[in-house]
Specification:
By secondary structure, this protein is α+β, with helices and mostly antiparallel strands. The protein has one domain. 26% of the residues lie in helices and 18% in strands. It has a six-stranded mixed β-sheet, covered by helices on one side. Helix 1 packs across helix 2. The longest helix is centred in the N-terminal third of the chain and has 21 residues.
Length: 195
């Protein structure tokens, strides 16, 4: 049975996972928008998206925007913490990851993992997996999952990011009153016939 992340750690709250998933998606969408020239292909787009996603997490950490976010390894194989939980991000299939790097810890990661004998019910790797939309031009259909994988490469935990609608103004402020516009022609002198 696939569990919720908070059943493994209270550090993995929806609010925190939403922040990281939002950073990853926003950086990807901006990169794909910027890398949309005749000189770009999937490779250049993917490299730019990955680099910007990495930088988005580093920037959030450097600015101390989220006190629960820290970085354990700043290399290209970025390793960050949500509270005490180590995590990485990838672009892959969240149900059946194809990249070997999703299922194998990097050297930096393996030195920070607990090296006790994990059981089948213990998550040893936490991964944000960004699944691209089916069509190349529809980056708004991208999905982000957060999965927990045990020592036998089985997925024990899966969480999906659900982007919420944004409010047109700050929450807690009142909606401004409607503005009454003058009827066309009276206030502006546009009552003339056009030939």
């Amino acid at each position: 049975m696939i569990s919720d992340p908070t059943s493994f750690s209270s550090d993995l709250s929806n609010d925190r996972l939403n922040v990281i998933a939002g950073l990853l998606l926003d950086a990807r969408h901006k990169a794909l928008h910027d890398a949309n020239t005749e000189l770009d292909d999937r490779y250049t787009q993917s490299c730019l998206a990955f680099g910007r996603q990495r930088q988005a997490i580093l920037k959030a950490w450097n600015t101390q925007t989220y006190p629960w976010l820290s970085v354990s390894h700043r290399g290209t194989d970025l390793l960050f913490r949500i509270g005490a939980v180590l995590a990485r991000f990838f672009t892959d299939d969240a149900n059946k990851p194809k990249k070997s790097t999703v299922l194998l810890p990097t050297f930096a990661e393996s030195t920070q993992l607990n090296l006790f004998e994990p059981g089948a019910a213990d998550v040893v790797l936490w991964r944000f997996i960004l699944e691209p939309a089916f069509s190349d031009g529809d980056s708004n259909g991208d999905s982000v999952f957060f999965i927990g994988i045990n020592a036998f490469n089985e997925i024990l935990c899966r969480w999906k990011y659900e982007r919420s609608a944004t409010a047109p103004h700050n929450i807690g402020h009142t909606t401004p009153p409607a503005l009454v516009l003058p009827k066309r022609g009276k206030a502006t002198g546009q009552n003339r016939k056009h030939v």
